[in-house]
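Researcher: Here's the sequence for the chain we discussed earlier.
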Amino acid sequence: MAASYTIETLQPELQLTIMRHVRSTKSLLSLLKASPRFYQVFRSRRESVLSDLARNQFHEGIFANAWDTAKALQLPQPITQEISAKFITAFTRDDQHQQPILPLEMSISICQLGPLIDWFCHDFWSDCLGNLKQLGICLGLRQDIQVLESPPSAIEKGRVQRAFCRFETMGILLAALKGTDDKIDFLIQGQRFLAQYAEDDVEELACVRDYFVRRLWGVIEAIEEDGMRAKPSDAIRRLGQAFGDHDWFGRVPKIFQLDYIENMMTLGLPFLRQVLQSQGLQRAGLVMAASRQTPRRFSIPLSNKHFEAQQHPPLYDSCPTYGEQEFSGDDLDDCSQGWVFANRGKVILDYNMGSRKGLRDWGYVMLDSQRLKAAGVLERE
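Model: Thanks. This is the structure I predict for it:
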C-alpha cells in the first residue's frame, strides 16, 4: 500500500525548502500559524528563512537597492550632515547583501519594506496606465488596451521597485537636512546622492517625483474643495484655522503648495501611503501638519534643484538607437527603450514643472517596448 503524505508529515528538509520559496510575509505567517511542524523548522532556521524571504520581496537585480534603503532606515537618529555624507560616499560599495545569510535585523527591515514598495508600485502602475489611456483619448492615439493593461513584466516591475527604493533612501538622507540654516548643505547632499547614478537612473527617480507631485496635488485640491464647501463651524474649517487658515482653501499661491508637497516627499513612504489612503479630516490633518513644518525660505521646489543640477556625461553615444535588433532593453542594467527613444540626441538638464511634457512625465521610461507600442506614444512623440 502506498504511503500517504501530507504537508505536515513531510521531511523537515522539504518543509524548509517550501518556506524558502514563500514570497510574502503574510503567506509565511499563515503557514506558521497553520502548522506547528513548520513553526518548529522555522525556529531552528529562522535567519536562513528570513534571508530568503527578504530576497523574494524584490526583483533579483535590485535587491542591492532594497538593502541600501533598509540600511539607511537603521542609521542613528538624528541623521547629521556627517552621517548622511558618509553613507552617500560608501553605500554604492557595500556588498554585504550578497551574504547567503543576512543579519536578522536587516532581513526583518527588508521584509517590512517589501509590502510597502509593492503598494506604491501598484499605485504608480495604476496612475501611469490611467494617464496613458487618457492621453490616448485626448490625442486620438491608436492603443491596444489589452496589451496596455496587461500585468507589468518582471523588468518593468523591477524598474519601479528600484526607483521607489532609491527615492526612499534619498528622502531618509535629506530629511534631516531640510531644516538646516544652510540650504547649500541640503542641495549638495542631494546632488551627491544623484551623482552616484547614470542619467537614465536619475530620470527614473524623477518619474517617481512627478508621480508624487500629481498624487499629492490631487490630495491638496480635495482638501481645498472640502474646505470651500464646508461651513465656518464645520470640523475641517476649524482644523484649517488651527493650522493657519490663510495657508489653505484657495488663498495660497500654488508655489507654496508645491513646497508642502516637496516637504511631504521627505517624510517617508509610510507617511505618504497614509496620506494617499486616508480621507476627510484624517487626510486634512496629516497634510496640514506637514505643511506647517515646511521650511519657507525656499522659494522654488527643493528636490527640483537636485535634479536640475545633474549634468552627467552623456550616455547617448553608448546607448543603441530605439529599434536596433541587438538591443532588447530586457536587462535592468540597460537603459530602458522608452528612455532611449525619448532622449536620443538630447541633454537632460531641466526637471522643473514648466518643462515640456514628454515621456518622462507619465512614467514611460519604466515601460518595455511592447507596452510603449500598445500605448501609441511612439508614433506620436
